[in-house]
Amino acid sequence: MNNEIQFKIPLLVENKEITALFHLIDDPDEEVYNTISDKIISFGKGIIPNLEHLWENTTSEDIQERIETIIHKLHFRDLTDDFMNWKVGSNELLQGALLTAQYHYPDMNGTQPLQELEKLRRNIWLELNSYLTPLEQINVVTSILYNYYKLRGVEIAYTQPEDFLINKTLETKKGNAISNGIIYLILSELLDIPVKAINIPRQFILAYFDPHYEIMNPGGHASEKINFYIDPLNGQIYSHKDVENYFKRISVPPTTSYFKPMNNRRIIQFLLEELAKCFDNDRNRYKMNELISLSNLLDP
Q1: Which residues contact 62 (CB under 8 A, 6 or more apart)?
Q2: Rounded to an integer, what distance in angstroms lies between the CA atom of residue 165 and that of residue 152?
């Protein structure tokens, strides 16, 4: 399984200039502190162990808070670069989901989610064969994921940011429709199953796209390319009639755009936008703004 994210353990940097800057980190003048902070950040992530060492050896909560802010800014600067590289690079869904998780867990170990996904991929692959119908294929994926692996779905709650993040969903076997759906999409891609996310209003729904339909009817309505729909919350299958009834219930006309597959960039944008809503309060609004800025960064 390809994954370009590197998890490095930086070492303490010995530098007299750093020591001098650290002595000024508690300066009461906000302008002086901002200058000091910018200078420390200019050293890059390699300075984080020094900052952590300073945090451990100070009793002042104000200084500790300033150190935490500087460390966060360092992580965010690197993450912004990583998202920019992802946008112009492979756009791999797994990598985009792991980068999003790194916002909340900057020191997370990326190996564990990869191992869990590989176990799931292998278990599903062992049950698949080329004679299965589309519905039978999906029944295999759903059975392994929700019955054997025991992944469960919870309603979207903006008080629970962990439910949006792939590492925590795989660790706790609990996620919302978005994180469960991203796992379902990653496994489908690894197993060459034509499942895609579609843009139905107020939902994160997956669809099984008929691979032969596009060849036979290139000008057909987008919904006609879909065999059926999958709810990633629990793996439940929906028919075209179910989806028609949903559009009637919400009084929205089912236009073609709602049935077109979302690309990986748009899925990660949506994930960032939804995760940002978890921080819509005075204490954490800077996090909300940062996540929205990452989403905007991925605009075409």
Answers
A1: 26
A2: 14
Distance CA 18, CA 136 (A): 61
Report whether 70 contacts 51 (CB < 8 A).
yes
Long-range pairs for 26-31 at CB < 8 Å and ≥24 separation? Answer: 26/60, 26/62, 26/63, 26/66
pTM of the model: 0.88
Q: Summarize pLDDT for 172-200 with one digit per residue, the tens.
A: 999 999 999 999 999 999 999 999 999 99
> Rounded distance, CA 207 to CA 258, Å?
11
Is 171 within 8 Å of 163 (Cβ atoms)? no
CB burial of 254-290 (b: ≥16 within 10 Å; e: otherwise) equals: beeebbebbebbebbbbbbebbbebbeeeeeeebbeb
Residue 33: per-residue pLDDT: 86
By CB atoms closer than 10 A (0-12, 13-18, 19+), residue 126 is exposed
pLDDT of 8 > 50? The answer is no
Specify burial of residue 23 (Cβ count, 10 A radius: 0-12, 13-18, 19+). exposed
Tens digits of residue pLDDT in 238-270: 999 999 999 999 999 998 899 999 999 999 999
Highest mean pLDDT, choosing among 32-46, 73-87, 211-225: 73-87
The CA distance from 190 to 181, in Å, is 14
